[in-house]
Design brief:
With 311 residues, the protein is an alpha+beta fold. The protein has one domain: Chloramphenicol acetyltransferase-like domain (Chloramphenicol Acetyltransferase, 2-Layer Sandwich). Helices cover 31% and strands 24% of the residues. The protein contains 9 helices and 9 strands. It has a 6-stranded mixed β-sheet. The chain has a 3-stranded antiparallel β-sheet with strand order 2-3-9, with no helix packed on it. Strand 7 and strand 8 form a beta hairpin. Helix 1 packs across helix 7, helix 3 crosses helix 4 and helix 7 packs across helix 8. The relative contact order is 0.20.
């Protein structure tokens, strides 16, 4: 006997509606930021990192420390050791390098127009601890007005986005102005992976920053540890660097140190509080330049030099 499967098609009558509403002012800010980075020439690196040790240390606190804060602290220390990767050009075409690392990241907040990724600046992230960064991110999540960008978005954002040319001009100034960089930072970290399960890389164009890290998905995967195959927590990261200001070799050295910091969980391990001896250039497998420092010279140090295009 032959059985045949028959599919019953039922015609459903329903109203076919189309909704038209104003484009949200918050999205105008995002589109303007994307346009501001159109002249950048990004180099992308897709890196999968074993963060099993970091996950254990982060979860060992109550409440647990933030994974985003851990990534921010790690990339900031690596960028401090390799300042060329977050350099940029000013109005005169000079190459500007900051000797401090301010990291901009996104904090999702609720707005009348729906959820919005609020940019927030974590100042001096290269010398701050993970619990301190965690507390600041959660404070902004609870109260967006705790962030200067949150206050601006609430007071002036809707009006500014309605005036033609204001937002593009604002982003053009921020891209080249050294003074403006003190308020927006030179490195960006965006954590898109926390909203999706499983592994996977995120790709985004560069905006105002010469160095951006896109945190992708995390999953458990087999890894060979001391000759044995074990299941580890692996995080997918995308590193984007502006090829206009740095070549591939310095970028690769930065990426290698960034990976070492993440996989060793050095910024949250007990040994991270130790400082290298005066003049000591060798601090184990990871450069001593990232080590936690408690003292910074007064003011934010910025160096400028003529820019010579890479060949």
């Amino acid at each position: 006997m032959t059985w045949r499967c028959q599919t019953l098609v039922v015609a459903v009558e329903r109203p076919r509606r189309v909704e038209v509403r104003p484009f949200p002012s918050s999205r105008r800010l995002v589109t303007a930021a994307m346009r501001a980075g159109r002249r950048k020439m990004p180099m992308y690196g897709l890196v999968d990192v074993d963060i099993t040790t970091a996950n254990r240390l982060l979860a060992g606190h109550d409440p647990s420390w933030s994974l985003t804060a851990f990534v921010v602290a790690s990339v900031a220390r690596a960028a401090a050791a390799h300042p060329a990767v977050h350099a940029y050009r000013n109005w005169r075409g000079q190459l500007v390098t900051h000797q401090h690392v301010d990291v901009g990241t996104m904090v999702e907040i609720a707005t009348p127009q729906g959820p919005f990724a609020l940019p927030h600046l974590l100042r001096d992230a290269d010398i701050r601890e993970v619990p301190d960064l965690t507390a600041e991110l959660r404070r902004v999540k609870r109260d967006p007005s705790a962030s200067s960008s949150g206050r601006w978005l609430e007071r002036a954002g809707p009006a500014a986005t309605r005036i033609p040319g204001v937002i593009p001009a604002m982003y053009a100034a921020m891209a080249r102005s050294v003074a403006a960089r003190q308020h927006i930072g030179t490195v960006a970290v965006t954590a898109v992976g926390m909203f999706a399960g499983g592994g996977g890389f995120g790709i985004t164009p560069l905006s105002l920053f010469s160095l951006e890290v896109i945190v992708g998905g995390m999953s458990q995967r087999p890894r060979v540890i001391d000759g044995q195959v074990t299941v580890r927590d692996v995080l997918d990261l995308t590193v984007a660097i502006d090829h206009n200001v740095v070549d591939g070799a310095p970028a690769a050295r930065f990426a290698a140190e960034f990976r070492d910091l993440l996989e060793s969980a050095a910024v949250i391990s007990p040994s991270s509080v130790a400082l290298p001896a005066q003049g000591d250039q060798q601090a184990g497998p990871v450069s001593g330049a990232w080590m936690t420092r408690r003292v910074r010279p007064p003011g934010n140090s910025v160096s400028k030099k003529p820019h010579s295009p890479s060949m």
